[in-house]
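In this supplementary section we document a worked example of the pipeline. Step one takes a protein sequence of length 156 as its only input; no multiple sequence alignment statistics are reported here. Step two produces a three-dimensional model, which step three serialises into C-alpha cells for compact storage. The input and output of this example are shown verbatim.
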Amino acid sequence: MSQKILIALDDSDNAMRAVDYVARAFTRDNDVTLFSVLMDTAAICDMNSPELIPYFTSQQTSFCTLEDKKKELISRALDNAKKRLVDAGFDEKRITVRSEMKKRGVARDIIDEAHKGYDTLIIGRRGISGLKEFFLGSISQKIINTVKDLSIILVN
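The serialised model returned by step three reads:
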C-alpha cells in the first residue's frame, strides 16, 4: 500500500541520512515530499533605516550574502535528495520538492505541513550535546514532543 512520506530537509548530513534511510527502507511505490523551511531574511536585507545600529548597517551586505548562500545550499540539498531517491529507484513523478518561507517557526511549519495528509514524517536528528539540547531544544525534539497523530521516524 502506497504511503505519503514527508522528509523534512535542511542542508545537513543528518538530513541526507534521512533521505538515504527512505531510499533503503521504503518501497518505491510511495509518494515522497522533500520539504524545507526557509528563513525569511529578505525584510532585514531590504531594511534601510536610520535607526539601524551602525554595526549592522556596515555588516548588512555580508549578512544578506550569507543568507543568499544558505538558500542556495538548501536548494542544492533538495536537488541532491531528489537525485538520491531517483538513483535508488523511486519514480521522479512521485517525488515532490517543496520549500516555503518560515511562517510560525521551523518545527511548527514542518508539523503544519505534516498534517496535510502524510502518513509518515522522516526527520534527521541534529547532533548537538544533551546539555545544549536540554536548554535550547531542537527541531526534531519539538516535533516529536508535539505530534501525536502521525508516525515519525527519527534518523541518526
